[in-house]
Amino acid sequence: MNNRRDDRKRAALEKQIDENLRRVYEQDASQEVPDRFLALLDQLRKQE
């Protein structure tokens, strides 16, 4: 019976982690990319 309880706890924890990651991603996705990162991406593209 402990296995079922452990599985439920693990599933609840994974769900909470997923929800938190989704919140962080949504917050970051709404922000503009800083110029220094755009410049870095441009430099990386030129190296390829």
Secondary-structure map with pairings?
Blueprint: H1 2-29, H2 35-47
Give the beta-strand count: 0
How much of the polypeptide forms β-strand, as a percent range?
under 5%
Helicity level: over 70%
Q: Tell me about the largest β-sheet.
A: none
Unreliable stretches = none
Overall, the morphology is: elongated
Number of domains: 1
Structural class: mainly alpha
Q: What is the distance, rounded to the nearest whole angstrom, between the alpha carbons of the first and last residues?
A: 55 Å
Overview of the structural elements:
By secondary structure, the protein is mainly alpha-helical. It has one domain (3-47). The chain contains two helices and no strands. It has helices at residues 2-29, 35-47. The longest helix is centred in the N-terminal third of the chain and has 28 residues, at 2-29. The chain is elongated and about 60 Å long. The model has no long low-confidence stretch (mean pLDDT 89). It comes from Paracoccus alkenifer. Residues 15-48 form the Anti-sigma factor NepR domain. This is Anti-sigma factor NepR domain-containing protein. InterPro entries: NepR.
Key terms:
NepR, 48 residues, mainly alpha, 2 helices, elongated, Anti-sigma factor NepR domain-containing protein
Quick summary of this structure?
The protein has 48 residues and is an all-alpha fold.
